[in-house]
């Protein structure tokens, strides 16, 4: 699968690795990041909220010291500001904090934005966001949003879905696993026939089920219209 390019010409590896892991298992993320880099992943999805940037930093330093042919610029690392840190001084703190551990930034994006909010923001934004990271899978196909460049979270760790995501205009998927064998098997993309794609799309028709809602993780209600 060729790496897609963002509007600013920065390449984003289509298959990434999600680092939201169990913070209580010390060293799990470090071991996982070493395994994913060995397996060939070059895109890590991170966030201060995941409370493991230090482990990722340690894994990167260790891995780079053993793999000098790969450079920091060969890796695409996403980090996220949490929505409760929206005051200017909080944004500055969070950005500096992540930059300190994970390095400089090439592209700015958003996450969990809906189309109406993106349209409103583009009227005043001085820098156009390059990406909208949202949940996409057959239970939440998000077809309209999928026409905009997106990273797909919660991809159900499935190569067929990664292929579907690419055909639907979704740029990149970051599956998560702490298991070395699954880390390797998740890094394979299979080609799907039109018929197979049709079957998956048909299963998605009329569905709208969110597995991850920031209302629960951060109290930030992005989709009040979905609340019962
Ligand atoms: N921007 C946002 O608001 C947001 C929200 C949610 C997620 N994300 C990003 O998306 C990433 C993925 O999130 P997620 O919710 O999809 O992951 P998840 O549910 O947190 O983790 C994936 C689960 O699937 C298991 N798994 C992995 N590969 C498998 C396989 N081949 N077969 C069976 N089970 C498998 C993993 O277990 P093992 O570890 O034991 O393999 C793990 O329990 C996150 O890490 C994060 O980076 C972003």
Automatic annotation (TrEMBL):
One MF annotation (Gene Ontology) recorded for this entry: oxidoreductase activity
Feature type site, description Lowers pKa of active site Tyr: 80
Keywords (A to Z) from UniProt: Oxidoreductase
Leader sequence segment: none
Superkingdom assignment: Eukaryota
Xref: InterPro entries: AKR, NAD(P)_OxRdtase_dom_sf, NADP_OxRdtase_dom
Pfam families, alphabetized: Aldo_ket_red
Domain NADP-dependent oxidoreductase: 15-104
Xref: PANTHER family: ALDO/KETO REDUCTASE (PTHR11732)
UniProt name for this protein: Aldo/keto reductase
Species this chain originates from: Hyaloscypha bicolor E
């Amino acid at each position: 699968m060729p790496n897609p390019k963002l509007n600013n010409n920065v390449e984003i590896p289509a298959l990434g690795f999600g680092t939201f892991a169990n913070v209580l298992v010390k060293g799990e993320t470090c071991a996982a990041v070493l395994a994913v880099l060995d397996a060939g992943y070059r895109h890590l999805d991170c966030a201060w909220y995941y409370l493991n940037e230090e482990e990722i930093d340690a894994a990167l330093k260790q891995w780079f010291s053993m793999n000098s042919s790969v450079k920091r610029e060969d890796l695409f690392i996403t980090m996220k500001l949490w929505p409760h840190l929206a005051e200017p001084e909080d944004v500055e703190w969070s950005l500096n904090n992540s930059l300190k551990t994970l390095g400089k930034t090439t592209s700015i994006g958003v996450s969990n934005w809906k189309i109406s909010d993106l349209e409103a923001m583009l009227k005043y934004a001085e820098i156009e966001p390059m990406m909208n990271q949202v949940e996409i899978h057959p239970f939440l196909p998000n077809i309209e949003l999928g026409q905009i460049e997106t990273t797909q979270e919660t991809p159900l760790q499935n190569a067929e879905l990664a292929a579907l995501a690419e055909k639907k205009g979704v740029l990149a998927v970051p599956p998560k696993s702490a298991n070395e064998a699954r880390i390797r098997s998740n890094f394979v993309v299979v080609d799907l026939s039109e018929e197979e794609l049709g079957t998956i799309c048909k299963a998605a028709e009329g569905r709208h089920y969110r597995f991850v809602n920031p209302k629960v993780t951060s109290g930030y209600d992005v989709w009040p219209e979905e609340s019962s």
